[in-house]
Amino acid sequence: MVEKQEAMRHSACLPPNLWQHALETSVHVYNRQPFRRLNWKTPVELWKGKAPDVSYFRVFGCLAYVFIKKDQRNKLEPKSRPMVFLGYESGSKAYRFLDEGRIVVSANAVFDETIFPRCARRIEVPRQNEVSCEDHDEEDHERDLEVAPSVISSESNIPYPSTYNPPQSSAQEHIEFPVIPSGTRTHSTRIPPSVISILFPVATPV
Prior knowledge:
The protein is of the alpha+beta class.
């Protein structure tokens, strides 16, 4: 648990004096995640007999706009204030927030899980059905590798017309290749030029 809370605290750029909030949040999340040794059930599910609802989970240390009650503001002040999310309040559905050195507990807040105020950085979250530039490059590369066999010549790189029909020859019906006896070692076999001209005819440019 110490490693989990340290990773959460460092990723949110929070000071060491907030380690307790990070530890409590990591334990809260740990008890609500499935484990293989528990037949993919959560510890809370084994304790209470039903799967927990985790739709309220938020990213630790993210930005949150917390609603300010009427008795804590005047008519000219904003109705919400930016704070840092610190975890979940025990025994209730409220959240904990950090507001200029003090802890605020509230259940009315709007979260922006891509911004960490203490880090001054933003995490880009890909939208649904969004394709990155790397995916486009990979698709273009695969498309370039798809070559129609009827448009490229394997001998001279001269494109054949799509309606080109090689001339038929009577000699093509009876092609005799040299017979190599079994057990004979050879490195190469020379094919007569007449056979090559029949197998790979060169198109005459129009």
